[in-house]
């Protein structure tokens, strides 16, 4: 009599081997989400830097890159999205850290109300160091009255520090996701 199929021992060995592979591979697959979020942060940082440099280039073509404060309330700002009644404010050729100027220049960046994938918020420390925090919309914690924002996680964001002087350009710093 010829038997076909696997023995019980062979099946147990295969299940044990698959279990060992799953245990060793699971941490790598779990970490992929963090890697994806960090890659998205890097991509957004690149998009912000590109938008800021393009805005600076437009202002430089008009000789406005050295102006300490330029806003469209007092004079015309030659940037297309800033001409349509949107309040735009620039310091030494780079945007001031406010929601209207930054969201006018950078695609997919919205205010704290979360209408876009990325949100620009002002935390308590932002007011002291002339900066704003940029994070994913799902990382924004809103208060009851909706005026103060904070981060749900104290990581996974980009910090934009505005230019304070002609020889001090803006800075973009990433705090990676964990």
UniProtKB/TrEMBL annotation:
Please give the InterPro entries that the UniProt record associates with this protein: N_methyl_site (IPR012902), Pilin-like (IPR045584)
Protein origin, superkingdom: Bacteria
Query: Which PROSITE patterns does the UniProt record give?
Result: PROKAR_NTER_METHYL
Gene3D superfamilies from the UniProt entry: Glycoprotein, Type 4 Pilin
What NCBIfam families does the record point to?
IV_pilin_GFxxxE
Q: What is this protein called?
A: Type II secretion system protein
Protein's organism: Photobacterium swingsii
């Amino acid at each position: 009599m010829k038997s076909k199929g696997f023995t019980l021992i062979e099946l147990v060995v295969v299940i044990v081997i698959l279990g060992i592979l799953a245990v060793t591979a699971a941490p790598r697959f779990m970490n992929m989400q963090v890697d994806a979020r960090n890659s998205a942060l890097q991509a957004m940082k690149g998009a912000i830097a590109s938008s800021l440099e393009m805005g600076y280039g437009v202002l430089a073509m008009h000789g406005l890159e050295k102006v300490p404060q330029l806003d469209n309330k007092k004079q015309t700002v030659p940037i297309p999205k800033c001409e349509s009644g949107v309040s735009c404010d620039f310091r030494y050729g780079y945007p001031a850290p406010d929601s209207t100027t930054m969201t006018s220049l950078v695609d997919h960046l919205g205010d704290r109300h979360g209408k876009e994938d990325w949100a620009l918020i002002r935390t308590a420390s932002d007011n002291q160091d002339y900066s704003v925090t940029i994070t994913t919309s799902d990382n924004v914690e809103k208060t009851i009255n909706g005026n103060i924002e904070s981060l749900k996680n104290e990581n996974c964001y980009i910090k934009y520090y505005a230019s304070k002087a002609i020889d001090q350009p803006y800075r973009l710093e990433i705090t990676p996701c964990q």
